[in-house]
Amino acid sequence: MRFLTLYTPTVMGPPEPDHFEKMSALMQEMSSAGVLVATGGLAKASEQGARVTLNKGDFKVDRTGPFMNSNFLMGAGFAILEGESMEAIMPHVRRFLETAGDGTCEIIRVLDAPPKM
Fold first, then answer.
1. Which of 20, 26, 98, 117 gives the lowest tally of CB atoms within 10 Å of its CB?
2. According to the 3-state scheme, what is the secondary structure of the chain?
3. Given the DSSP bridges, would you call strands 77-82 and 36-41 parallel, antiparallel or unpaired?
4. What is the pLDDT along the chain (117 residues), one digit of tens a residue?
5. Distances from the Cα of 43 to the Cαs of 70, 76, 77, in angstroms?
6. 115 cis-preceded (ω within 30 degrees of 0)
7. Pair 80, 2: CB distance under 8 Å
8. How many CB atoms lie within 10 A of CB 3?
9. 9 closest CA partner among 93, 89, 95, 71
């Protein structure tokens, strides 16, 4: 099973100098273990985002924002993790939070595509 995790830090601001080194080591370890599928940071939606809507055939693209509180995304990131269950990835999420710092990780299961007929 794959899970999308969205991280939002509690404290906004620049990370400690050794932060990137610790995070890089953790990401390498999780990748080598086959748990980490992908990871990345999120740009502010107001800078590089859009809201796209289709309503009864009317296609609209809104780039004016803000789409959410811009402070929400400062320092935020995502990861796609793979494991047998949510319980199986929970220790990895805990280690991530302990390394990244205080914050919240939302975990959402990514559904597999249905088999082709």
1. 117
2. CEEEEEEEECCCCCCCCCHHHHHHHHHHHHHHCCCEEEEEECCCHHHHCCEEEEECCEEEEECCCCCCCHHHHCCCEEEEEECCCHHHHHHHHHHHHHHHCCEEEEEEEECCCCCCC
3. antiparallel
4. 999 999 888 877 677 788 889 999 999 999 999 999 999 887 765 566 777 888 999 999 887 765 555 444 556 889 999 999 999 999 999 999 999 888 899 999 999 877 777
5. 9, 8, 9
6. no
7. yes
8. 23
9. 71
Instruction: Locate 96 and state its tokens.
Output: 């991530």
User: Tokens 């990895």 appear where?
Assistant: 92
Beta-strand relationship, 2-9 and 103-110: antiparallel
The pTM assigned to this predicted structure is 0.76
Dist. CA 90–CA 87, nearest whole Å: 5
Instruction: Tell me the C-alpha distance between 1 and 81, whole Å.
Output: 8
